Amino acid sequence: MDVELPELPFPLRPYGPDGNWSYEDGVLTGRAGPRQDRFVPPAGEALESASDAPRLLGAPEGDFQLIARVTVGFEAAFDAGVLYVHVGERAWAKLCLEYSPDVPTVCTVVTRGHSDDANSFTVDGDSIWLRITRTGRALAFHASHDGERWTFVRVFTLGDEKETGAALVGFMTQSPAGEGCAVTFDRIAFRPGGPADLRDGS
């Protein structure tokens, strides 16, 4: 069943396990169950259907920025709240606030058949602003302590401009090693187009 958020010009649809998604007064809440994750080990086997986590995704048009402040109820290593972008079953990426493994950290995963994994910087507390930008065939990840000044984290592509233009984007929660993890997303915003410069803090 589609979910309509007033901040977004496109509907969202749940994917993967039940995330108990709810929305009230500008706050989106989801919960991962025990040992739910979306990650394909670089030296491991291909993605299996059991490797999944709750996602709430939609299909924006054109270049855009998707922004949310993410707050994670950390209970176990690698619990995370995620902004997620999906191009294909083995072409997707995560921008996470993750307990990695014992301190909150902004980290990213880009999957092209198998996943990579890169930590960016640690966070003092359980909240951070995250942003996904699409500009042409490029996707960019940023994080911010205040939603105003943005730290560049990563720029990459998951395919050609047509493939990237058809991407699904949205929200995910995970608990790879734990018994579950609740995440809230607030201050959700959608902006057409990208920042003028990906690296100048705007």
From TrEMBL:
Q: Which InterPro entries match?
A: ConA-like_dom_sf, DUF1349, UCP022704
Top-level taxon in the UniProt lineage: Bacteria
This protein is called DUF1349 domain-containing protein
In its UniProt entry, the species of origin is given as Streptomyces griseicoloratus
